[in-house]
Write a structure and sequence with these properties.
single chain; mainly alpha; MetI-like fold; 2 domains; 11 helices; elongated
Length: 312
């Protein structure tokens, strides 16, 4: 009896390991297929090249910067220095080298966008999954709350929350953007779940006794993930713009260099009138091209992963 139980346990363990290996092989195959399709898509290729460029700057920018930047201390140089061989883009009001700040700000701006987008997508996906699968009065209550969130402009909501908090750190601004931007994702995921839960394989899973959590984890979530992933890429672009907007409105993270804070200080100190054009033009262009890269990649992934939901 004991030997029989051991054999069954080993066989079950072997089967589970084989299933995991098969899932990994399938994931690798799908990833390769999506990558090939992405590189053949003009928007996807352009977005990938732009994002690779900015990713390299974000990863190595602080090491490539000619001078160290510490936003909690005064700068190392005289303020308002014009462009020269020592300071390619001049110095700002605090005595920081503008080119060095541009390289330092790349990492922070990208991290703010990515973390805020992940938070918004996780919260939105969780609400959408539960609402769409549960149905009934639970769905009605959650969607009415979601409708209220959607009826309030995102920028206005962020400004309101930031104004109530007062002093803003980098973590706080990420949470503000992420926790106020989940409603669109929730509506999108709910619509997908409402379609998926009526499929035949879901009915068969219920018929053999599968629990709701197992069905969501095994069938609903994997089939909704491509939609969530493509939407997250687009949300990164919106989050980067949101941080720049909040910083421009003086709701900037304290002691942190971002492209948004550079624009804010440049505008406050009349950079154009002082002849420091790089101070305001370069971070603005970086934001535009970075947002463009994420937008192009998001649209391309949307076409590849969800051709029926959004054909562009």
């Amino acid at each position: 009896m004991m030997q029989s139980s051991n054999r069954k346990a080993k066989e079950a363990s072997r089967i589970r390991a084989e299933v995991r290996r098969e899932k990994l092989r399938l994931l690798i195959f799908r990833s390769k297929r999506v990558t090939r399709a992405l590189l053949k898509n003009p928007m996807g290729l352009a977005g990938t090249i732009i994002l690779i460029f900015f990713s390299v700057i974000a990863a190595f920018g602080p090491y490539l910067a000619p001078y160290e930047v510490d936003a909690t201390r005064s700068g190392l140089f005289e303020p308002y220095l014009p462009s020269s061989s020592e300071h390619w883009m001049g110095t700002d009001v605090f005595g920081y080298d503008i080119f060095s700040m541009l390289l330092y700000g790349a990492r922070t701006s990208i991290l703010v966008g990515m973390f805020a987008a992940v938070i918004a997508s996780v919260v939105g996906a969780a609400v959408g999954l539960y609402s769409g699968y549960a149905g009934g009065w639970k769905d009605e209550v959650l969607m009415r709350i979601n409708d209220v969130m959607l009826s309030i402009p995102w920028l206005v909501l962020m400004i309101l929350v930031a104004g109530l908090i007062g002093t803003i750190s980098l973590t706080v601004i990420i949470l503000i953007i992420g926790l106020t931007g989940w409603s669109a994702t929730a509506r999108l995921v709910r619509a997908q779940v409402l379609s998926l839960r009526e499929r035949q394989y879901i009915e068969r899973a219920r018929a053999i006794g599968s629990g709701d959590l197992h069905i969501i984890k095994t069938h609903i979530l994997p089939n909704s993930f491509p939609l969530v992933f493509a939407n997250t890429i687009l949300t990164v672009a919106i989050s980067i713009l949101s941080e720049a907007t909040l910083s421009f409105l003086h709701m900037r993270p304290y002691g942190t260099v971002t492209w948004g804070t550079m624009l804010s200080y440049a505008y406050d100190n009349s950079a154009f009138q002082l002849g420091l054009h790089y101070w305001i033009v370069m971070p603005g262009l970086c934001i535009v091209f970075l947002v463009l890269g994420f937008t192009l990649l998001g649209f391309a992934l949307d076409e590849i992963l969800n051709p029926r939901l959004r054909k562009r």
